[in-house]
Amino acid sequence: DPKLNNLRKSLSSILAEGMAKIHSVKPEQCKDESLRKKLLRDLKDVPNSVGLAAVEDMRSQVKNLKEPHPAIELILNWLEQNAPDQDDIVLVHGDFRTGNFMVTPEEVTGIVDWEFAHFGDRHEDISWLCMKDWRFGKVNKEVGGFANREEFYSEYEKASGVAFDPKKVLYWEVMGNLRWAIGSAGQAERHLSGADKGIELASIGRRTCEMEMEAMRLIENAG
Question: Which of 1, 116, 135, 201 could cross-link with 191 by S-S, CB 3.0 to 4.6 Å?
Answer without folding.
Answer: 201
